[in-house]
Design goal:
heterodimer; A: about 475 residues; alpha/beta; about 40% helix; about 15% strand; B: mainly alpha; about 0% strand; elongated
């Protein structure tokens, strides 16, 4: 463990938890270190909508007192986290990144927030995001754009923009995001951190803002795969408050790391994910293939069925459901939306119900064909996190016009299929572009195959050091 | 004038977006073929899971095809 590092904000989540448990550092000291780092870096990246310093310090002192009396709440005892501002806490403001809900206070608390607090986590504040999680770039006209810690002129990716930026900037040790078309994995990819979209049903969504009920997933963003494994085990599992959550048992993902990957069959798609790749992403993917091959994995090329069609089907489902969720505000408060978001959430009003149901019904057919033709040959797919590194903010902040929609589609090209298919997908840092911003790879597994993805991701991180690089803030 | 410009951009954006989610006749044919394939295979072999050719099949399939290596 490198808990001897002078600056504790550089520790991983697991190292921080171990240091607190071993009383090498107090939770209050750790929270203060994070708050100091936030104070210094927030003006550069705008990752937080609100920092809750006093409450966090009070909670940390309580955690320290508990530990002094021999009581540990769990594997996150005293560790500071912060989450995308869409996970409800009863009576506390939850803006959902929007003007419409800027002072809204929900009456319920999100199940995942309850689980994290029960495991001992300290809540540092509310993280920036796209308005209503609608958009892949991380820009926000109400709370200000979130900026990429590697280059503040570039987007962070979204919609969990603050989570990606805060993790990369070493402001927090872990965060929750939501992923409807890539919103956990895109900021992870553009900011150089780890992001996991679990299998549909693996993680409860009760008390998390709804965007598209068929496509929404909630998942962790962290600095390392091991950190991700720890958070996933805490938040995963059936929740009676979410009828779509699965009864599938939750493994101890962290304990399952470190297994040999010899013989694991890794598929390299020959289509769809090869579209429009930048040179730096292509190079990083090829290098990653060698890392896995050197550890005994079997790599084989595989063609993917239906993926061009699948993107449209996913968009039909998402956009129709978003419009359903927002219909009331589109009538009563249209002027309170960012024009880009208003355009995006309006599209579904023009989709015929029959088309929407076609797209929803076909989900099973497309999944069945993927399993029969692809996952019968391979255990996971190795694909890019994104086709290109983070674009400039100036190229993304283009108002509501058709250019925006093309950009949106190109950013989420590599992430959206896993949402429609409901498959688990892990994004992790895999190198840097010549401009010095991160590029990412993505592992997509079979349903409920998170343990395998995390084991592969951890094996990759044991052999590389991309995840240890820190932006020059 | 500004308002008129915003409205025009908004309408153009919506129109463009609708095209993005529009199903071409060729795509519609492929969708029908996919559904038929599913009906002829998975539905016909529904010994393990009661598929009905409806959205509820999706979560059932996720469990049926789960990764056993855990």
């Amino acid at each position: 463990m490198s808990a001897a590092t002078p600056d504790p904000t550089q520790w991983t989540l697991v190292e921080a938890a171990q240091a607190i448990a071993a009383k090498q550092v107090s939770s209050a000291e750790l929270v203060r270190a994070c708050l100091e780092r936030i104070e210094r870096t927030q003006p550069l990246i705008n990752s937080f909508i609100a920092v809750e310093a006093e409450e966090a310090l009070a909670a940390a002192r309580t955690a320290d007192a508990e530990l002094a009396h021999g009581r540990s709440r769990g594997p996150l005892h005293g560790v500071p986290l912060a989450h995308k501002d869409m996970f409800y806490r009863a009576g506390r403001v939850c803006s959902c990144g929007s003007k419409i809900r800027h002072d809204w206070r929900p009456e319920v608390t999100c199940t995942l927030i309850e689980r994290l607090e029960a495991a001992g986590a300290i809540h540092l504040g509310r993280l920036n995001m796209n308005e209503f999680a609608s958009g892949p770039h991380g820009l926000n006209q109400t709370f200000g754009h979130c900026r990429n810690p590697w280059d503040p002129e570039r987007i962070t990716g979204g919609s969990s923009s603050g989570a990606g930026a805060a993790l990369a900037a070493r402001q927090v040790f872990g965060a929750l995001g939501s992923d409807t078309g890539g919103s956990v994995r895109l900021p992870a990819a553009f900011c150089g951190v780890v992001g996991l979209k679990p299998t549909y049903g693996r993680v409860s969504r009760a008390g998390a803002m709804q965007l598209s009920f068929s496509m929404d997933h909630v998942g962790p963003l962290t600095r390392t795969v091991r950190d991700c494994a720890r958070l996933l085990r805490i938040v995963a599992g059936h929740d009676p408050r979410d009828a779509t959550s699965s009864h599938e048992p939750v493994p101890d993902y962290e304990a399952l790391l470190g297994r040999p990957i010899r013989g694991v069959r890794i598929g390299l798609p020959t289509n769809y994910y090869t579209d429009g790749l930048s040179e730096s992403v292509r190079t990083a993917l090829e290098a990653a293939q060698e890392v896995f091959r050197a550890q005994g994995a079997e790599l084989r090329e595989v063609g993917l069925p239906d993926h061009d069609l699948l993107y449209v089907l996913g968009a039909l489902v998402t956009r129709t459901e978003i419009s359903t969720v927002h219909r009331r505000w589109l009538i009563t408060r249209p002027e309170d939306y960012d024009p880009q978001v208003r355009a995006r959430v309006s599209i579904g009003l023009y989709v015929p119900g029959t088309r929407y149901l076609d797209a929803l019904n076909l989900r099973a057919a497309v999944l069945e064909r993927m399993m029969a033709e692809v996952y019968s040959q391979v255990d996971v797919l190795l694909v890019p996190g994104t086709s290109f590194p983070a674009p400039l903010i100036a190229d993304a902040d283009v108002g509501a016009n058709p250019v925006y929609l093309q950009l949106l589609a190109s950013i989420s090209h590599c992430t959206q299929p896993a949402n429609y298919l409901g498959l688990p997908a892990l994004a992790l840092p895999a190198g840097f572009s010549p401009e010095g911003v991160p590029v990412s790879l993505q592992l997509i597994g079979r349903p409920f195959g998170e343990a395998r993805l995390l084991n592969l991701g951890d094996a990759y991180q044991q052999a590389t050091d991309w995840h240890t690089r820190v932006p020059p803030l | 004038m500004t308002q008129r410009k915003i409205d025009a951009e908004y309408i153009l954006t919506i129109a463009e977006a609708i095209q993005q989610v529009e199903i071409s006749p060729a795509a519609a044919e492929r969708m029908a073929a996919l559904q038929k394939r599913f009906n002829d295979t998975a539905l016909a072999q529904a010994g393990r899971v009661p598929f009905e050719g409806e959205p509820a099949d999706f979560p059932r399939l996720l469990h049926l095809y789960r990764d056993e290596e855990r």
